[in-house]
Amino acid sequence: MSFILGLAATTIIVVAAWCAIKLLLSHFRYEKAIRENGCAKPCKYRHKDPVLGLDLFMEIAKAFGNGSFLETNRHHFDLYGRTFEANSWGVRIIKTIQPEIMEAVYATFFKNFGMEPLRLDVGGPFFGKGILTTDGSFWEHSRALIRPTFSRARFANFSSLEMHVDRLIALVPGDGSTFDLQPLFRRLILDTSTEFIFGESADSLTQSSALDAQQFLQAFDDAVAGVGKRVMMGRMRHFVRDKKWEVACRTVHDYCDRYVAAALKEQKESAPKQSATKADRWVLLQEMAKETHDPLDLRYQILNVFSPGRDSTGILLSNVFFFLARQPSSWVKLRNEVLSLAGRTLDYDTLKSLKFVNHCLKESLRLAPFATFNQRMCLQDTVLPMGGGRDGTEAIFVKRGDVIETNFYAMHRDRGIWGDDADEFRPERWEKSHPPWAFMAFNGGPRTCPAEQMVYAEAAYVVTRLARQFAEIENQDPCEAWQEEMRLNFQSKNGVKVGMFVTK
Questions:
Q1: What's the CA gap between 12 and 419, in Å, rounded?
Q2: What is the pTM of this model?
Q3: What are the backbone angles phi and psi of residue 45, rounded to the nearest 5°?
Q4: Residue 369 contacts residue 409 (beta carbons within 8 Å)
Q5: Burial 408-443 (b: 16+ CB within 10 A, else e)
Q6: pLDDT tens for each residue of 74-84
């Protein structure tokens, strides 16, 4: 027994020594690389636990729990500068709000940074392999499948959207009584996105909404919220089993699989029927089924599109009305621009010509982007042009395995970029140009969101229709400030409680 204990102790000592030597050699190589490349070190977060960085994890977890996650992270940049490094479970993480680093990571050195090592394990049980979770050739395959669907010719016909917006307007009280716009916008985008992706709307804005569609919506919300929690938990997720999340994932997968099976059956039996394309719009699933016959691939591909497609436009609409309700002068200005159209048809070019409407959309995305931060793992040693030194203006060396976290929320409110009124809703600021890469509502580089123009166009259509219908909008929420609530993305915790007065 004593021999076994002695052997075990010796093994532990040898392993510990080997790990210490590896860390020491890694440190020497890092220091040498910094000198050889003329780099400087970024500022550092002041850890109480320098080994695993558990103090930072606990601080972020507490902020997540009390609804101050976004501002807590923003405060870190006030303390440590626009780029600083921290320790996350033993991994070096570089946090930044510098546009120059955004450009380097998302464009210049695009192939040197990936998201698959960070996302596939966390979101894979729900999202599988798709455009949100992979890099390289599989990401290129996913991108190629969906790119044609988001061409202007595919989404610029608003006849289908018009029907759903008519239903939404019918549910809005026009007498100034208090109601919440946010759930209505979520139901609107659920209806349009299910029709766009599956070829059949959930019809959640009507009384005829099917029970399985309602169950799908709840399960989808639970599944997405579960992915968000897994992201926040970091490596702790491996020690916690969330049965509710697992059930939600299965419910969503079963719902998608029924449509996938139907699409594959139709492809196998005959050419797609004309009725598959409603109002001259593509049905994404049926178009994808022409390119791949793998049911699991199709399931995950459409989920990777449905999630951001449903959340992004709904959150954007909710937030723009949140801010407009608190800025009566902006609503008046927006409505006057809309009324100047008189009876013109709301086509793509007309909506794009509404400058103030589009400025309001951009300003809302600046203050409350649906993607507030993003992470990439360094796949190859890289020198970034900024972030080092006391003022962050010197180059930094990023070694393989390091993580870059770009904080869009904090950058969009950086007074050095946007001025002293960076926290205020002022759409007029978009009349002037801004530094490239300082606005990242739809990411940038090769992974720029392919649905960007569709989101802007559909949001502008909905805003314009409501401005035509309602003369006034009033905030009915005693809380003036926008407060965060996290799902996979962030939305208004208190919803959008307003009163609207119909045009006389």
A1: 56
A2: 0.90
A3: -65, 140
A4: yes
A5: bbbbbbbeebbeeebeebbbebbeeeeeebbbbbbb
A6: 999 999 999 99
